[in-house]
Amino acid sequence: MISSLHRPTKALIDLEAICQNIESVQANIPQGKQTFAVVKANAYGHGSKQVAQAISHLVDGFCVSNIDEALELREAGIDKTILILGVIMPEEVEIARERHLTLTVASQEWLDMALAQGISLADLDVHLKVDSGMGRIGVRSLDEAEHLLADLKKAGAHVAGIFTHFATADEADDTKFNQQLAFFTDLITHLSETPALVHASNSATSLWHSETIFNMVRLGIVMYGLNPSGTELALPYPIKPALSLESSLVHVKQISAGDSVGYGATYVAQGDEYIATVPIGYADGWTRDLQGFYVLVNGEWCEIVGRVSMDQITIRLPEKLPIGTKVTLIGQDGDQVITATDLAQKRGTINYEVLCLLSDRVPRVYSK
Fold first, then answer.
1. One of this protein's Pfam families, by short name (predicted)?
2. CB within 10 Å: which end of the chain, N or C, has fewer?
């Protein structure tokens, strides 16, 4: 999808804020831990190449979801360790070896399949994934881990790390978290040989359970300045959102009582009103369920009236304003602020999804 560079809608990315957020976390966790930055899904909508280049001096490596995301970073000149968190197909192993990518191995079946296909794992860096209770990928017992580690070593792979992922580290109830932590700690303790890197801490764990960090952390949403828990847990120290979303009024008109706005005529004016059109819609990630939400214009709340369409929304203004007036969709205008978490609450989702859904049609504009 091509970015709509000639449209006023744009996402503004503060790269310095991301750097400061990383430094804030590092200052508040035990020293001597390695930091890997999670830049999967286009760095949670912020732009993976630009973010990785800006923060490379602050981190020890990067985490991505799949091999194509990893290759994008290599092509952008990133030469640090890149860990692919998801499972790749065995036939992609050679590409990973050529580009010095680190793979996640999550099952004996995967290894057996690779060996059956005659795929060499010699000198390949891998991390072993443990399913401590997340229920997605990974081995589920000490015996499985020992067997897989032995077979990986026999196949010539270099097992550089072992890790797990917590399901509820961002929740007030830490029962499940403690169960997973106990399982993983017990497994690590009883391994006959422990890989050099041991990691379980994501953003939430780094914020609220820093005492449980092993020797590496994986920083995701916290890097971008958002609370992993939404509003359930208070942040232990300040972080700054790195993304704001702006557009402009492109059309302003006055309507009268009884006039309808948008598909389905779901909004009907109760009197004389000024209605403005803003060029953003569900094709940009501004989803249909945001009807009835607000944007900021000149520091004032303006309701989204009528259905959100593919390319446009309509808002009710307090007065007639000129075409070109700035509209803040995420960010601060005057004394008022709209956050990705506010949007998530309106939509019944999480701030991660709000950011990741911002499509490539929305240009990213960077500042340092």
1. Ala_racemase_C
2. N
